[in-house]
Amino acid sequence: MKTQATLGIIIGNRDFFPDSLVEKARTEILDVFQKLGINAVLLDTNQSKLGGIETFQEAKTCAELFKKHRDEISGILVLLPNFGDEKGVADTLKLADLNVPVLVQAYPDDLAKMNVVNRRDAWCGKISVCNNLYQYGIKYSLTSQHVSAPQDPIFQKDLLNFVAVCRVVKGLKSVRIGAVGARPGAFNTVRYSEKILQRNGITVTTVDLSEILGKANKLTVNDQIVKDHLDSIKAYAPQGKTPNEAMIQIAKLDVVLKQFMEEYDLDATAIQCWTSLQQNYGCNVCTSMSIMSENMLPSACEVDVTGTLSMYAMQLASSSPSALVDWNNNYADDPDKCVLFHCGNWAKSFLPDIEISNAPILGTSVGVENTYGALDGRTPAMPLTYGRISTDDPKGIIKAYIGEGELTNDPLSTFGNRAVAQIPDLQKLMNYVCKNGFEHHVVMNASKTAGILEEALGNYMGWEIYKH
């Protein structure tokens, strides 16, 4: 999942401050980029004074360079080794018109070097630059400390978090989601607005479940592609007590779903499950969904399109798989713990004891023999970022809540995919979820990335965000 990011760099300069600071900053930031595996696009020292930007002509030159690399640049770093020219920075961003996230950095002064030759005043300059960006309507991010040098670990963490913000924003603005089948009749909770999503760059491609099942039924165990998929499924998870006939059904369905995703260049899927698949095809699709999610192609059940969008956003933030879960049960009388559950479609990363099994709850209505393909497994203790993106149709907006907690090793005797979550002030969160009409589905990710998501979804996507 991790790909080498490319950032544009603007080094601000102001003529009555020492030029040597600009020259040194250029060397320092390129060393940091190389260390962190980030590609840089910036002016050469012969294209402007020491590669910095101060005048309008220098802003034009830098903007043209950025435009040439439009498809590569996912964000821009503004570096202020001295006060910097506020208009030079703002004009560069306006002329380039890349519409990508911007991080503003400023160097700290050394108390022992406050003379004319070494004084920076970047503390003040950063305020002026941000003021201009605000006037221009350019969205921007800030470092966790007002001033910090590129060599500082705290800045380098800020920079990596910014790269993740850029990854989320770029990914969400072009994501393509496949909706397989109709929303189950009993699940009004997963309704969503395709039109609101499309206005935000999110495309939904629909297909009738009958088309998928029809193509799957035409395949046989003798088809090489079915054999190949069967082998990959067996390599992914132990078969357990799942009958061979059910494994073949799962493999055939897996073939067709993969073909659908490749045909429409999809990044994620939301699939009708409850209960059409079991009644009309005879197995669960959970194993295929788990494989897709593990391979960074997230898949949500019950045609929960905004659920899989949430999975994709968290995946982009953390570079690790996400899982769709139910806020399902209280955990004894602990107000800050709850049980997360689903029939069995979580990515393998969450299930060290993974096994292909059946879905007992669903089996009570459709027959357990028709529910093989659900996974069984318990998620152990690990970090937790949770959240949910939703379209609020009456308001015409996209909204989300996000937060962090822990998954614990507390005892839990049940079936399916299961975990125990510990979340500070969980009762307040549940109150917010219920009062604001969010779905019963939430997404979990084994990371601490709520701050990245808040910045990407709130600041840059412009969505209504609640960070718990």
Automatic annotation (TrEMBL):
Q: Which domain of life is it from?
A: Bacteria
Question: A Gene Ontology CC term for this entry?
Answer: cytoplasm
GO BP, sorted A to Z: fucose metabolic process
Name all L-fucose isomerase C-terminal domain ranges: 340-465
**GO MF annotations, alphabetized:** L-fucose isomerase activity
Q: Which CDD domains match?
A: L-fuc_L-ara-isomerases (cd00578)
Tell me which InterPro entries the record gives.
Fuc_isomerase_C, Fucose_isomerase_N/cen_sf
* Entry keywords, A to Z: Carbohydrate metabolism, Isomerase
Q: What is this protein called?
A: Fucose isomerase
Q: Which organism is it from?
A: Sandaracinomonas limnophila
